[in-house]
Design a protein that fits this description.
The complex is a heterodimer of chains A (267) and B (211).
Chain A lengths: L1 H16 L18 H11 L4 E6 L2 E7 L16 E5 L2 E7 L1 H22 L5 H17 L8 E9 L3 E7 L5 E3 L2 E4 L3 H11 L6 H15 L10 E8 L5 E5 L2 H11 L10
Antiparallel strand pairs in A: 1-2, 1-8, 2-9, 3-4, 4-5, 5-6, 6-7, 9-10
Helix pairs in contact in A: 3-4, 5-6
Chain B lengths: L2 E6 L3 E7 L2 E3 L2 E4 L5 E5 L2 E7 L1 H22 L5 H16 L6 E9 L3 E7 L5 E4 L1 E5 L2 H11 L6 H18 L7 E7 L2 E8 L5 H12 L1
Antiparallel strand pairs in B: 1-2, 1-10, 2-11, 3-4, 5-6, 6-7, 7-8, 8-9, 11-12
Helix pairs in contact in B: 3-4
Classes of the chains: A alpha+beta (267), B alpha+beta (211).
Keywords (chain A): Cytoplasm, Nucleus, Proteasome
Subunit structure (chain A): The 20S proteasome core is composed of 28 subunits that are arranged in four stacked rings, resulting in a barrel-shaped structure. The two end rings are each formed by seven alpha subunits, and the two central rings are each formed by seven beta subunits.
Family (chain A): Belongs to the peptidase T1A family.
């Protein structure tokens, strides 16, 4: 009995002196009540290319910064940061892409399972919630690390119309009128807060998103190669549309918004 | 024997069912409600093996309310019909439920609707439908007299015509029926069409009172 007690008190002192003990496992709270692995995952996202989402009365705009890591790297034919989840939902990613691919697949499966059960598109919030349940699971059940990804979800459903959600590695999600994830998200968020107006149109939302991204990005001038822009809106016939802007139309937009310099001589 | 039928009318759906609990040649009860109120705006009329009928309709009802608790929005009638069909289809290749269903509902966007779902997991959106032996008679009556956009009065009248036909032409006709409706104000009992009261229970009560 005595030896057991001694052993326990020894362990207790070890807990206090060795705060790194809490770093290696996601399942353990630190004495301050924090989950370090989850916080580190969020930190990782803070360094990733950022993404901004803006909700408007006639659609949702998603915009993302592509980080060009090497000149030799083949630019991808499809989008790198924007993914269509279902006909009525799309998302933008910030964080570890390999983790994101897994979650995007999970979300697509969830959406199709729902339509299989009910022959109706899955409500946007339910889709976000199901994905966040998966994320949450990886912060609680031991031996695994959390997903190092934040998402912006843009979608439309018949109950709540256009919606924008942001989610983080802890599995928290919330609905926003305008939101930013990734590098410099706090600066972007405060700019959005200042410039966002209710009753904003989709066109104005695109302009706002471009303006905010151009100011919060590290590089000085914004070009179409560094950008991805996707929109979710209703077609005149009432169907939900997901559209990614082409590089040409992006260049035009950038000039119109006045956030780019006329093409400089390539060095 | 069992009779369940329903029709879509002007802004509402009417569902009628017999209320006999039968085993072999014996009638155990003549006030058994076979039309379940699934949620505030849905009715599920069912016929089939009585154990399966109760088990399956309750299972669907509980799933519909679970969905509502989880998501804060109700399932549409169409979604419920497809969900129900899916459950029957999964069960079909394992241990099938012997139930045939008429699902009636009212939705804000789509208005009143009626779905015909049978135990081999087919699902059709219909204007009028029927199950059981009574179907031979009620379907004929509805073919002859049904038109779209009937008022509550006309629909009740047609339902009663169907019941009269069943009672006069079917050898094993059930005595009592219940008629329920669902419209923008919700699902509710509209009318009981009884030809006998539960004599057994009344007789026992009278005998006890006399003793």
């Amino acid at each position: 009995m005595a030896s057991q007690k001694l052993h326990r008190s020894f362990n207790f002192t070890a807990f206090i002196t060795m705060s790194r003990r809490y770093d290696s496992r996601t399942t353990i709270f630190s004495p301050e009540g924090r989950l370090y692995q989850v916080e580190y995952a969020m930190e990782a996202i803070g360094n990733a290319g950022s993404a901004i989402g803006v909700l408007s009365k006639d659609g949702v705009v998603l915009i993302g910064e592509k980080k060009v890591t090497s000149k030799l790297l083949q630019t991808s034919k499809t989008t790198e940061k924007m993914y269509k989840i279902d006909d009525h939902v799309a998302c933008a990613v910030a964080g570890i892409m390999s983790d994101a691919n897994i979650l995007i697949n999970t979300a697509r499966v969830a959406a199709q399972r729902y339509t299989f059960s009910y022959q109706e598109p899955m409500p946007v919030e339910q889709l976000v919630q199901s994905l966040c349940d998966t994320k949450q699971g990886y912060t609680q059940f031991g031996g695994l690390r959390p997903f190092g990804v934040s998402f912006l979800f843009a979608g439309w459903d018949k109950n709540y119309g256009f919606q924008l959600y942001a989610s983080d590695p802890s599995g928290n999600y919330s609905g926003w009128k305008a939101a930013a994830i990734g590098a410099n998200n706090q600066a972007a968020q405060s700019m959005l807060k200042q410039d966002y107006k209710d009753e904003i149109t989709r066109e104005e939302a695109v302009e706002l998103a471009l303006k905010v991204l151009s100011k919060t990005m590290d590089s000085t001038s914004l070009t179409s190669e560094k950008l991805e822009l996707a929109e979710v809106f209703l077609s005149p016939t009432g169907e939900v549309k997901y559209q990614v802007r082409s590089s040409e139309s992006l260049s035009e937009l950038l000039i119109k918004a006045g956030v780019t310099q006329p093409a400089a001589e390539s060095s | 024997m069992e009779c369940v039928f329903g029709m879509v009318c002007d802004g509402f759906v009417l569902v009628a069912a017999d209320t006999s609990a039968v085993n072999s040649i014996l009638v155990h009860k003549s006030d058994e409600d076979k039309i379940m109120v699934l949620d505030s705006h849905k009715l599920l009329g069912a016929s089939g093996e009585s154990g399966d009928r109760v088990q399956f309709t309750e299972y669907i009802q509980k799933n519909v309310s679970l969905y509502q608790f989880r998501n804060g929005i109700p399932l549409t009638t169409a979604a419920t019909a497809n969900f129900t069909r899916g459950e029957l289809a999964t069960a079909l290749r394992k241990n099938p439920y012997s139930v045939n269903l008429l699902l009636a509902g009212y939705d804000k966007e789509t208005g009143p609707s009626l779905y015909y779902i049978d135990y081999i997991a087919s699902c059709h959106k219909v204007e009028k439908g029927a199950f059981g032996y009574g179907a031979y008679f009620s379907l004929s009556m509805m073919d002859r007299h049904y038109r779209s956009g009937m008022s509550l009065e006309e629909a009740t009248d047609l339902a009663e015509k169907c019941i009269v036909e069943i009672r006069s032409r079917l050898v094993v006709a059930p005595p009592n029926f219940v008629i329920k409706i669902v419209d923008k104000d919700g699902a509710r009992v509209h009318k009981w069409v009884d030809s006998i009261k539960d004599e057994g229970a009344a007789a026992v009560a009278a005998a006890l009172a006399a003793a």
